[in-house]
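We modelled the chain as a single entity of 155 amino acids. Its sequence is:
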Amino acid sequence: MKLFLLRHAEAEDSAPDALRPLTKYGRRSVIDLASFLKDRIRLDYDEIWHSPLIRAVETANLFRESTGLKAAILERTGLYPMDDPEAIIGQIDAQEKSILLVGHNPHFEALTATLLGLDPYRTPVNVPKASLLRFRRYGQHWQLRDLLTTKVTGR
């Protein structure tokens, strides 16, 4: 099983927080990252899970559209910025499918640390906006295979 984490791209600074859309730069970042990745790594996920916040929904849809993959897009609990990583890990562990999660920090930083067996609240893990992390599960353990940001696209 593979697990991909895609942090949402840059969003407008507005309120309420749940309704903040992506900026023009944010939309371009997602498209550029997806275009760069689709011919370089196997984006072989079966489903896309996203938080209900607009910036995550937009990021999920743009990424799917830009990669041309037909994975189902599903809203899931456990992906809010302040959620405990164990909530989504329980859902992931119940799956046999490979999944792309689209969400937020500080949740993704804590989730990444937890997957790697680190203390999520004491270990600094940086997950930049519009970045993709690729994990692979080996038995009960996760290995971080890649952390790719829009900087790799050269755009």
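As a brief sanity check on the tokenised model: The first helix runs from residue 24 to 37. The longest strand covers residues 141-148.
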